[in-house]
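Single Protein Entry

Contents — chain, fold
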Amino acid sequence: MSIMTRFTRLFKADVHGVMDQFEDNGLMLRQCLREMESALTARRSVLDRKIEARDAARSDLKTRREEIAALTADIDMAIEKDRDDIARFLIKKEKPLSRHCADLARHVETLDREIGDAQTDLDRRRNEYDALKLKASRYLDREKDADWPRSHNWRAADAATITDEEVELELLRRKEGGKRGAA
């Protein structure tokens, strides 16, 4: 290993160490929580689109089944009236519609499974997010409490602004107050 490689690694390590000190852990934690919330919103959006697609497919399936029921009734009537030509024509319309209904039913079943899985996953992730959010809140509260003595040097600030004359004046007032109380 060359000396330049060692210097480069040492420099990178120092830079990373300095950057770690500059980073505010609370700020990073809040940013991570915002990103998690955004990811949950995106997953919810995908789930909502699947639900809309399933509902549209169900509606289409219901409409197609009603059309098949009407065609079946017409086929039965054509057979009763010995109108085989009309029955054949209606059967040619009914068969592709039946296949389409079977495809739609499978599609609805697939969407139902995907929605169930996505809902379970979203619920699990939401619970994890809520737990992490609670832990982060506790951590941030502890950090705030730990920083209080360092960040609120109000005693030192007040002591620095008091002049000697103010101290002498307060001393005289207290001495006067003590003489009046003793008398």
About this structure: The CA atoms of residues 104 and 153 lie 70 Å apart.
